[in-house]
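ok, trying the design again with the full structure, not the truncated one.
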């Protein structure tokens, strides 16, 4: 038995009133006719306390009537578990799904969520078994199918909301996996959440087993006001002669009322460098651009922070300002190269900005291992490979993660005994001098080299004309072909490195590709791919996976590194099939450092809440229940709807029957009082 207003039970103290009256003798006056009282002394009447109750039935009727009145005003009702036990349903299998996504940190939502979970445990009948699972975009089963109420309550008390997003699909699937094998007479799911709209993917098929009930308990509010930082932009400006950092924040007002004068600040390296005030309209966004600051020489932490509101976790946005990165490229030429053999290539790379390219041209015959240690990509530009120790150094460079681009012009012989690096063997040159020459007929746009050219107006590789190229034999992975079927670009993976073989030249000697607009982005993309270069992300969202593995040529393996989470937990990076992957589960800054005491910080990774989690717009729980159970209220077994405590009490209406019973007892008390003998 539960009560909607349990505080009113304190009125049971009024039961002391009839008991007190029954223990006190009342004076009964009887008029006796007497001729004169003037000569009789008046003696005052004194009431005396009784030592025992004379009319137990009358006392019981009065006390019971008062108790029923108190219980009626306290609004009693039977919870679901008690109803099941009273109806003789038998043991139930109950799954309690507790939402612990970041949005539950709003106001007192988490406190109400925990209380709703405790109420669900209190409603369990003695024979019921319960499973407790916490969910966001993942699911953690804390307690599985147990009758131990203490274990469930302890897990609820220890739980805290996390930083991940809301997803109902995984939670419903876990509940289904628990209920399907159960042989209990009744099966029920209690889903406690703020029912964010983003958490329900309507295209995802979600269905509980036949006969299973779903009770949705919503802690959402009708109106919520929330201003969040939806994103941060980090740009570099070198127009003034020195590089400056320009940070901008995109603010979003999720509420129905405008916000005026909200303070927003920028922190760089833990120090506040600027504060501003911003006005944001209702359901609107605003962009705040801070004044440029000197770009730090090394990667530096930064935070854009709003004055906190009911959901303070989305009022801060972290980022890492990294210095401009560069890729070192070594272009190797053969003996007596053409005057402009590397001109177009070096000029194209010189204008690179993201990243910048540091290019050096040298003869292939004089290659040394020390030169290779300082570069990420080697271009064999129409040159034969180095022999002897230099050739072995080139092979080792590729195997440990270096990139090699081979332009197979007329001087690019690859004799027997040369490093085994090419994806194919050279054949004879193919002449296309008659007519307008050949064109590229096939391109694998799924490959990173050509992926940027898959969208319209991004560059047309088929516009270039090729008058000569080398035929290849036994080619490995082919990335592009000419219109006659011959290979244009092939790839081979050697150890941790990559090799690209271009069957024509990179100047205008065998084609006009070098004077086409697509030449520059094609060369940039090929070199970036060989260098395994990715633009450093200023920030990532919780739930993302960051690749923090060092490159093999750096001399540091993933097993030599550890990550420290924002809460201080140390995480190994050498586990799994791909070492160096860091799953972001917390909001803040992750430190990647070398293992051991006092290890050096290698890099920082900024992790933020998913901006979508700040949208607290809720779906109708009854609509969700209907979708998952196949139509709530349709009369099928197991169809259920969201029933809060007040609604459950209203439907049962036990208080009305208690009032009727109290009235009947008062009538019975009146009759009994008139019929019982009156004792003076």
């Amino acid at each position: 038995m539960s009560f909607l207003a349990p505080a009113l039970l304190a009125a049971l103290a009024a039961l002391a009133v009839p008991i007190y009256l029954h223990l006190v003798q009342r004076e009964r006056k009887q008029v006796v006719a007497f001729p004169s009282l003037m000569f009789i002394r008046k003696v005052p009447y004194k009431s005396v306390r009784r030592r025992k109750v004379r009319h137990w039935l009358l006392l019981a009727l009065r006390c019971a009537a008062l108790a029923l009145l108190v219980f009626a005003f306290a609004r009693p009702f039977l919870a679901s578990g008690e109803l099941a036990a009273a109806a003789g349903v038998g043991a139930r299998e109950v799954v309690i799904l507790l939402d612990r996504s970041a949005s539950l940190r709003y106001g007192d939502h988490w406190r109400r969520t925990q209380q709703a979970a405790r109420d669900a445990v209190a409603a369990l009948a003695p024979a019921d078994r319960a499973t407790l699972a916490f969910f966001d975009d993942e699911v953690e089963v804390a307690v599985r199918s147990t009758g131990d109420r203490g274990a469930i309550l302890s897990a609820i008390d220890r739980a805290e909301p996390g930083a991940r997003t809301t997803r109902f699909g995984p939670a419903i699937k876990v509940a289904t996996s628990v209920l399907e094998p159960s042989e209990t007479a009744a099966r029920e799911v209690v889903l406690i959440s703020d029912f964010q709209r983003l958490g329900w993917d309507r295209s995802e098929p979600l269905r509980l087993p036949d006969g299973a009930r779903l009770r949705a308990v919503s802690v959402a509010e009708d109106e919520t006001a929330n201003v969040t930082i939806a994103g941060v932009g980090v740009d570099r400006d070198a127009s003034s002669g020195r590089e400056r950092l320009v940070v901008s924040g995109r603010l979003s007002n999720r509420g129905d009322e405008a916000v005026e004068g909200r303070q927003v600040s920028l922190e760089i390296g833990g120090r506040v460098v600027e504060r501003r005030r911003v006005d944001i309209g209702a359901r609107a966004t605003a962009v705040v651009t801070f004044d440029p600051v000197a770009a730090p020489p090394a990667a530096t932490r930064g935070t854009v922070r709003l004055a906190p509101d009911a959901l303070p976790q989305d009022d801060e946005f972290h980022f890492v300002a990294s210095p401009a990165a560069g890729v070192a490229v070594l272009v190797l030429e053969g003996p007596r190269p053409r005057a402009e053999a590397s001109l177009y290539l070096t000029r194209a790379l010189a204008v690179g900005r993201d990243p910048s390219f540091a290019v050096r041209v040298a003869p292939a015959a004089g290659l040394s291992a020390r030169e290779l240690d300082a570069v990420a990509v080697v271009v064999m530009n129409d040159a034969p490979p180095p022999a002897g120790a230099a050739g072995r150094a080139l092979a080792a460079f590729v195997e440990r993660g270096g990139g090699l681009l081979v332009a197979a012009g007329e001087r690019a012989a690859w004799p027997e005994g040369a490093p085994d690096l090419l994806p194919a063997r050279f054949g004879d040159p193919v002449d296309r001098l008659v007519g307008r020459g050949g064109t590229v007929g096939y391109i694998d746009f799924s490959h990173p080299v050509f992926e940027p050219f898959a969208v319209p107006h991004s560059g047309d590789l088929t516009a270039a004309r090729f008058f000569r190229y080398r035929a290849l034999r036994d080619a490995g992975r082919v990335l592009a072909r000419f219109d006659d079927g011959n290979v244009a670009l092939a790839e081979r993976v050697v150890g941790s490195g990559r090799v690209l073989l271009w069957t024509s030249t990179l100047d205008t000697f065998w084609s006009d590709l070098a004077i086409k607009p697509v030449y520059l982005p094609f060369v940039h993309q090929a070199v970036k791919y060989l260098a395994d270069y990715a633009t450093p992300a200023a920030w990532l969202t919780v739930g993302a996976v960051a690749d923090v593995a060092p490159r093999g040529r750096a001399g540091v393996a993933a097993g030599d590194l550890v990550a420290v989470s924002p809460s201080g937990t140390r995480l190994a990076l050498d586990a799994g099939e791909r070492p160096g992957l860091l799953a972001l589960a917390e909001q803040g800054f992750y430190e990647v450092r070398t293992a051991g005491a006092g290890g050096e910080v290698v890099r920082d990774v900024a992790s933020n809440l998913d901006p979508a989690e700040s949208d607290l717009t809720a779906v109708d729980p009854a609509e969700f229940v209907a979708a998952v159970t196949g139509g709530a209220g349709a009369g099928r077994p197991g169809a259920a709807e969201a029933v809060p405590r007040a609604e459950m009490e209203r439907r049962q209406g036990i208080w009305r029957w208690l009032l009727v019973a109290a009235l009947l007892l008062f009538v019975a008390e009146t009759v009994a009082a008139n019929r019982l003998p009156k004792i003076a």
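Keeping the full-length input from now on. The domain at 90-223+617-643 is CATH 3.40.50.410 (Rossmann fold).
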